[in-house]
Amino acid sequence: MQPIRTFNVSPSLPPRLEPLRQIAYNLQWDWNVEAKDLFRRLDPDLWESSRHNPVLMLGTISQTRLTEVVEDDGFLAQMDRVAQQLEDYLKERTWHKKQRAGKPKECYAYFSAEFGLADCLPIYSGGLGVLAGDHLKSASDLGLPLVGVGLLYQQGYFAQYLNVDGWQQERYPINDFYNMPLHLERNPDGSELRIEVDYPGRKVYARVWRVQVGCVPLYMLDTNIEPNNPYDHDITDQLYGGDIDMRIHQEIMLGIGGVRMLKALGYNVTAYHMNEGHAAFSALERIRMLIQEQGLSFATAKQVVLSSNIFTTHTPVPAGIDLFSPDKMLHYLGYYADVFGMNKEEFLGLGRENTGDLSAPFSMAVLALKMATFSNGVAQLHGVVSRQMFKGLWQNVPVTEVPIGAITNGVHARSCVAKSTQELYDRYLGPNWSSAAPDSPLWERMDAIPDEELWRNHERCRLDMILYVRDRLVKHLRERGGSPSEIAQAREVLDPNVFTIGFARRFATYKRATLWMRDVERIRKILLANKDRKVQFVIAGKAHPKDIPGKELIRDINHFIREEGLEKQIVFVPNYDIYISRLMVSGCDIWLNTPRRPREASGTSGMKAAMNGLPNLSVLDGWWDEADYVRTGWAIGHGEMYDDPTYQDEIEANALYDLLEKEVVPLFYDRDVDGLPRHWVAKMKDAIRLNCPFFNTARMVGEYAQRAYFHASDRYHTLTADNYIPAKELAEWKTQLCDKWYNIKIKDVQISSGTDILVNQNVTVSAKIDLAHLSENDVQVELYQGAIDANGEIVNGAPVVMKCQGSEHGLSNYTAEIVYNASGLQGLSLRVLPKHPYLSSPYEPRLIVWAE
């Protein structure tokens, strides 16, 4: 029966309890342990059954209980304290104001296909989403004028369960938006705020929901509304669900719809951040708006967009990039070519590395890179991998100078460190530990934490995790129809006193979740041979619903557990989520990570573990390649690269077993007369002291702000001033530059010395260059010097800017002096690059001339 009218019914609270509503609707409660304690105190069972959702709690809690707490002075005092904490938090975010004093008003928009913010908002799949959520939290902590842009999925990512055979199955629970910490955005007349996006033959409408993340609003689009047809309802149904057509539908809504949404909300965005290529269509829409609404040419509009766009890639392999066929792109977005005044091949070239390859698909990553003033990978090693992957976009630029930098990921400390551990740090380090810089004297206080106190706290965290794991297994077995004996066995899994290895991540095959099982006899020996030095595993994670090899890994683990009779020592925890993640990174004793180097872009779960004092045991990939892996854990291998993956698995599995047998397990069980593992605790303290201050989003978001947001925002203000005159000037200059560039000729290079020189000897170089009617102000002439490798190439070259000494006979004269501070075979070359005060980088025009 269809209703003739609907109502949005809000929780009814006694006036004295109204602060609860304000607290519940701002996700700052997720990283305020006292706020979570407040809701747990209100109704512990309902807090757990609601998936830690305070809005749902307030809507379903009994009126009797509310009446009781109105008379509970202790509860009211805690509520008032938490409400005051939120009010103070919202007022005290001043880092950005101090950094940007005197600057024009600015706004940064952060686009992401998923956001992992809290357990009660299941609209994320894994590390990318949790990173995006942590990005917003730290942006709020720093007071950045940032807004998030995403899609609000009706079903989100799937809930995982295992059948009797251990095979992953998926359920898609429906998200009830009206009982989540969400606000539906409305027009002044009370109607829903909606935007429309053009799709072939129709318009699709979306309404706007907001999640308040401290000071930062996250706006998300929802297409599950009338008058959309049933197919279009499903655009925001499942995260990463459906076929390639659904994927392009979603990315059109995220990128194009997201830009239109920000305009409808009244934001004047000065810097756009595309977190992965999913949002790259935002660049097309911004260009369209500037052309049609501001009357700019395509070249000028593109320049404005390019100068204020930031792109972060998380993909270390080409297979992870979204690609669309030329026909599909033209079908869905071909009308943009008409607006831009381009033919279809020129338009498709925006997303092609080789624009002359007319059969090449359209790459979202390539579009994002071509439309960004700043691009980065998410770890230093990932930056190296990304420069290698995308070097073809910058022809003739040395791979080390390809303009893709690296900002190493971090995690939000207050979101991932256990409550009792936070209280311990607050007590001994002070309240600012979660954002203190690596060089802060605060970290010298780590030794003030008594070993016994740190260890006993960790043992409590391990017990909390084990009790929860048992409860979750029992619930899972009951839902599956498990036998009484299976349920009884689940109540006894794991030993709170045994060394516990944690492994939890997405079950992609390159992460090698079963590497530790490679030698059955050896792992059985490690687990069981010494009754005084037992080992156990807690494992969790999901495979994408269409990733059959990933699902096979999960099944293989569960088969291994049963076949080897290791149900008490190894547990696979179903339906991995933010909550179980937080328990595992605080309750396990060591964090295991075994990716196939260099395919782990970053890997943030190990950072969370380190913040809780867990050493890491990992292949040198992603963030771990940058960490002090000697003092804060153990490295599996030495960063070798292998051509034979089977041989690599054998070598690294044996290295893992050796470390467990000879170093890790013995150190954990090495106890003093007080029963304390003093040497292990020392490694825990190092893990906290050396990793916590760097691998956190306070540092990471600050780095994005200083290296990307501030500069992009300033360029936006510069280029759009005086009715876009600077942007028009730069676009026109680029056009003239391209017309003349290929006629530049390096006519003559003179070097003062012969082939044999001494270390630190001055060498004078002069050159005559035909600039093809360009001015000396249009170019930068550089010497490029460095060591010569076995292939005769300059490696890790360093540029030296040459000075123009005037011109004669149509040739410009340039000179420079260089020295070599190392012996051996060295070399130099000479190159010409574009130069303009409005350019973000000399590589922006993608033009370079080398001496031959």
Overview of this protein structure:
Strands 1, 2, 5, 6, 7, 8, 9, 10, 13 and 14 form a ten-stranded mixed beta sheet that branches. The N and C termini lie far apart (79 Å). This protein is of the alpha/beta class and 852 residues long. The protein contains 28 helices and 28 strands. The mean pLDDT is 95. 40% of the residues lie in helices and 18% in strands.
Main traits of this protein?
852 residues; alpha/beta; ten-stranded mixed sheet; six-stranded parallel sheet; 28 helices; 28 strands; globular
What does this entry show, briefly?
This protein is of the alpha/beta class and 852 residues long. It has 28 helices and 28 strands.
Main sheet makeup: 10 strands, mixed
Overall shape: it is: globular
Structural class: alpha/beta
Low-confidence regions? none
The total strand number stands at: 28
Beta fraction: 15-25%
In helices, the fraction of residues equals 25-40%
Mean pLDDT: 95
Q: What is the rounded Rg?
A: 29 Å
* Number of H/I helices: 28
Distance separating the two termini: 79 Å
Topology:
Blueprint: H1 19-24, H2 33-42, H3 44-49, H4 54-60, H5 63-70, H6 73-91, H7 95-99, E1 108-111, H8 127-142, E2 146-151, E3 159-162, E4 168-171, E5 183-184, E6 194-199, E7 202-213, E8 216-222, H9 230-233, H10 244-264, E9 271-275, H11 281-294, H12 298-307, E10 309-312, E11 323-324, H13 326-333, H14 335-340, H15 344-349, E12 362-363, H16 364-370, E13 374-377, H17 380-389, E14 405-406, H18 413-416, H19 419-429, H20 451-480, H21 484-490, E15 499-504, H22 520-528, E16 535-540, H23 548-563, E17 570-573, H24 578-587, E18 590-593, H25 605-611, E19 616-619, E20 633-636, H26 645-668, H27 678-691, H28 697-741, E21 745-751, E22 763-770, E23 779-788, E24 794-801, E25 803-808, E26 811-818, E27 826-834, E28 849-850
Parallel strand pairs: 1-2, 1-9, 2-8, 9-10, 10-13, 13-14, 15-16, 15-18, 16-17, 18-19, 19-20
Antiparallel strand pairs: 3-4, 5-7, 6-7, 7-8, 11-12, 21-22, 22-26, 23-24, 23-27, 25-26, 27-28
Helix pairs in contact: 2-6, 8-28, 10-11, 11-12, 12-28, 20-21, 20-24, 24-25
